[in-house]
Amino acid sequence: MIEFQNVSKTYAGDIAALRDVSFSVGDGELVFLAGPSGAGKSTLLKMIAGIEKPSSGVLLINGQDISKLGASGIPYLRRKLGLILQGQGLLLDRDVLSNVMLPMIVIGESTDDARTRAIAALERLNMLDKADAYPLALSGGEQQRVMIARAIVNRPQVILADEPTAYLDRDNAMIVIEALRAFQRSGVTCIISSHDEQFLDQANRVIYLNKGEVTDAWTSANAA
Ligand SMILES: Nc1ncnc2c1ncn2[C@@H]1O[C@H](COP(=O)(O)OP(=O)(O)OP(=O)(O)O)[C@@H](O)[C@H]1O
Asked: Is 45 a residue whose pLDDT tops 70?
């Protein structure tokens, strides 16, 4: 369970990115964060990942106040998260398999275990035939699928995806959304930011942000 309680975020220069935001996301939900550019969507995701801290208010993850996590708390939190964030693209000088193995290597898993899990993750995203390719030889949609494989290789409880369909055509975007939905169906919580309204009917819930405030929210009648 992820719970924002009256969270505000002001960046240096007095930029109010979030204002008094309150909502919660239950385990296994698929939630879209919608809203125009600059609404605060990335800031919300970065807070859940422990990259940014609230200026005021409380963010609880599984009942724990993330502002109070110590130096070892953030890496521990990140192990439970799969991140698809802007600016964290694939390493261009490594092939697809090495890119997907990386999160496991970083946390000290053996190369053999990392390879086995990375192969399984690529298989799930239907990308195993590109394991030896380098990222620049892939289409945008294929690169996004590899980034999802990299995000799920650690078997996270929660996937955070910031604009995972940006720059993709509709067919590739649907493949990416379908892949995320498949993880949600297997019990993983997915929080996806998008300013592309065409995918919102795939969500259990949509939370609309504008200028740092929650302006609207709805829950699907078929929500799990
Ligand atoms: N590190 C930062 N320092 C200062 N201001 C920031 C920083 N990050 C974001 N902002 C500002 O905070 C506001 C919210 O930005 P944020 O990136 O969260 O919005 P967004 O909804 O994700 O937008 P986009 O869809 O364009 O990615 C914007 O006004 C942005 O310029």
From this structure: yes
State the ipTM, two decimals. 0.94
Asked whether residue 154 is assigned to any structural domain, the reply reads yes
Does ligand 1 come within 6 angstroms of the Cβ of 19?
no
Q: Write out pLDDT tens, residues 123-173.
A: 988 899 999 999 999 998 899 899 999 999 998 999 999 998 887 888 888
State in Å: Cα 11 to ligand 1 middle.
9
Cα of 17 vs centre of ligand 1, distance in Å, is: 6
Ligand 1 nearest-atom number relative to CA 9: 12
Helix/strand/coil (H/E/C) assignment for every residue in the chain: CEEEEEEEEEECCCEEEEEEEEEEECCCCEEEEECCCCCCHHHHHHHHCCCCCCCEEEEEECCEEHHHCCCCHHHHHHCCEEEECCCCCCCCCCCHHHHHHHHHHHCCCCHHHHHHHHHHHHHHCCCHHHCCCCHHHCCHHHHHHHHHHHHHCCCCCEEEEECCCCCCCHHHHHHHHHHHHHHHHCCCEEEEEECCHHHHHHCCEEEEEECCEEEEEEECCCCC
Q: Report how many domains make up the chain.
A: 1
What's the predicted TM-score (pTM) here? 0.90
Q: Whole domain around residue 166: which residue ranges?
A: 2-219
Residue nearest to atom 8 of ligand 1 (CA): 43
- For the chain, what is the mean pLDDT? 90
Residue 224 covered by a domain: no
Residue 61 belongs to some domain of the structure = yes
